[in-house]
Design a protein that fits this description.
182 residues; alpha+beta; 22% helix
Length: 182
């Protein structure tokens, strides 16, 4: 009985050593790969603001024409994209990054995706609607949001380098841009 028990334990030990040995690899001859799992990107790039509007289901999405000059510099568009209920145009105004969004008005009027707190907030009137502006410098908006009909809109800017936290658009640029966004 003892011999049978010793034989069983020895066999189990041998299998366990073999199994452990099989999992060892020689790093000089075996390449290890690691799979990286990331969240799926909810945005789909498109060729135009119209295509972004169609994909988002917001009817139409009009942005100012590229090449137009504003107080802060030349306007240009790099990409258009959409996610469920939001159309987006990404580009630049002068040296600053610019993002414009149009979304279906739902639980919030803020479709900017920017939930930072800012030192200053104020309102600007343009036509029949009110622009809500936020920035870290008085009179310079990093984020502007407004509602028109059943849609929410936003303009966000990000300056370069040392100005990334303080750069903002002045009243004239905000009003000019907002008046052309539909």
């Amino acid at each position: 009985m003892k011999k049978l028990l010793i034989f069983a334990m020895t066999t189990a030990l041998a299998f366990s050593i073999t199994a452990c040995g099989a999992s060892k690899t020689d790093s000089s001859t075996t390449e290890t790969t690691t799979e990286k799992t990331e969240m799926a990107n909810p945005w789909t790039e498109t060729a135009s603001s119209g295509d972004a509007a169609e994909g988002a289901g917001v009817g139409y999405f009009m942005v100012p024409e590229a090449g137009k000059e504003y107080e802060n510099g030349l306007l240009g568009w790099d990409t258009f994209k959409y996610s469920e209920g939001i159309a987006e145009a990404d580009g630049f105004i002068g040296a600053a990054e610019l993002t414009v969004r149009k979304g279906l008005k739902q639980d919030t009027e803020d479709v900017s995706g920017d939930y930072n707190e800012y030192k200053y907030n104020w309102e600007e009137k343009i036509g029949d609607f009110t622009l809500k502006c936020y920035g870290n410098e008085e009179g310079k908006a990093k984020k502007t949001i407004w509602v028109s009909d059943n849609f929410s809109y936003s303009i966000s800017v990000l300056g370069q380098g040392d100005e990334s936290e303080t750069f903002g658009l002045g009243s004239a640029d905000i009003k000019a841009l907002a008046s052309e966004i539909q």
